Amino acid sequence: MTKKILALTLLFASQSMAAHNLSVRVGLPSYSDAVTSDEMSGSSIGIDLIDTSEIYGALSGGGHLGANFIEHKGQTYELKTGEYYFGPLAEINFNDNFSMQVRLTLSYIEAKWNKRPNQYSWGAGYGVGFKYALYNFTLGVDYQPFISFAKIDDINRGATYNHVLLSAGYRF
């Protein structure tokens, strides 16, 4: 799955004449289960493989791979995440260095829950990000809520994720 995200990212990136941005993101994810109403929170780390802009003149995309570590009732659960995002659906440039973007996010999650087999789910949402660029270096903050859908223990479950991310990167 992660290879597909990378392949899509590189395919779109190859069509772009714009700059790319490679960055590392750390974040604070929170999770709410629609069936049990359990609330969980934790930490995350990931890497944006490539972040492109102005693909085909308007649309951009990027790929992100990461791991989330969610704490709940004294246990840590690991969620591997893959994201592919499209955008900006809207962009505001406040000046040459500071901008805001709104993106559409498609997500894939592989979760390890206790001793069960790995669970998989798909999700969709949006991202709102602010980015500051100075020379070739970038700093950013993103808010990415999304809803995921999975079948766990023969029950169709939905979950809501809220993710606040800080990033540092390099444009090339």
From TrEMBL:
<dbReference type="Pfam" id="PF13505">
    <property type="entry name" value="OMP_b-brl"/>
</dbReference>
<protein>
    <recommendedName>
        <fullName>Outer membrane protein beta-barrel domain-containing protein</fullName>
    </recommendedName>
</protein>
<feature type="domain" description="Outer membrane protein beta-barrel">
    <location>
        <begin position="5"/>
        <end position="172"/>
    </location>
</feature>
<dbReference type="InterPro" id="IPR027385">
    <property type="entry name" value="Beta-barrel_OMP"/>
</dbReference>
<dbReference type="InterPro" id="IPR011250">
    <property type="entry name" value="OMP/PagP_B-barrel"/>
</dbReference>
<keyword id="KW-0732">Signal</keyword>
<feature type="signal peptide">
    <location>
        <begin position="1"/>
        <end position="18"/>
    </location>
</feature>
